[in-house]
Amino acid sequence: MRNMVRYAAAAAALAAALPATQAQAEVVVVNVAGAQGFGALGATGNTILSYFIGANARVTDVSYNVNITALGESYLSEATVYFGDTDQLGGVFLRPGFEVAAPGTGTFSDSVSLVDFDLAFNVGADGLLRLEFFEGFTDGERPDSIWNSGTLTFTYDGVGGAVPEPASWAMMIAGVGLAGGALRRRRAVKTTVSFA
Asked: What angle do CA 169, 170, 171 make, to 5 degrees?
C-alpha cells in the first residue's frame, strides 16, 4: 500500500511540473481571386473549394477582405459564399456586400465571431471545410458575380488535436501509477497449493 501511495505522489509531482498547455486555435486562409457565382446554391458553374482542417474541427470565426464585381443586373448584395461541412448540414452564408443593392465593384472587410452569433459549427469526419460561391438571386448573367481578389480567413479548433491540461495529465498519470502499484502488489502475493 505504501508503494501505491508513493506512485500516486510521484505522479502528482510529475503532473505539477508539466507546463500548462492548451490547444491553440488554427487558421486557414482562402484566396478568393477568380471565384465566380453563376446562380443559386448548387448551380452549375459556381466555384467550389475544399480545405482539410481535421476531422470534426469546429469553425469559430471568419474574417474577410475581398473585392467583388456584380455584373449586369446583379447586385453586390447578392454575391454570397457558403462555408460549412461537405454534407451541407451545418454552415454559414456570408454576403460581404449585403448593404449594396446595386451592380458594380466594391471592397469589403470585417471579422465575425461565429460563436457570438451561435453559428459556430463542426465539419464532418472527412475533415473538409467546403466553400461555394453563388448568387442570392439569379439574374441570368454569366457569371453574376466575380470575386476579384482578397481572402477569407477561418479560425477553427481541431477537436482531435487538443492537448490535455495539467489536471488531466495528473489524473492519467496517477491512474497509471495506481494500476502499476496494484499489479506489483499482486505479483508479490505467493500462492501455495496443497493436495489432499
From this structure: 95
Helix, strand, or coil here: 153? strand
Q: What's the distance, Cα to Cα, between the start and end of the chain in Å? A: 34
Rounded to two decimals, the pTM is: 0.70
DSSP assignment string, 71-120: -TT--GGGEEEEEE-TTSSSEEEE-TTTT--S-EEEEEEEEEETTTTT--
- 196 by Cβ neighbours in 10 Å (0-12 / 13-18 / 19+) ranks as exposed
Burial 88-108 (b: 16+ CB within 10 A, else e): eeebbebbbbeebeebeebeb
Q: Minimal CA–CA distance to 130: which of 92, 84, 95? A: 84
Instruction: List the grid coordinates of 185.
Output: 502488489
Q: Mean per-residue pLDDT for 70-76? A: 92
3-state SS, residue 185: helix
- Quote the crossing angle between the two packed helices 2-17 and 166-188, to the nearest 10°: 160
Supply the Cα-derived Rg of the chain in whole angstroms.
27
- 107 vs 74: CA distance, rounded Å: 16
Q: What is the pLDDT of residue 142?
A: 82
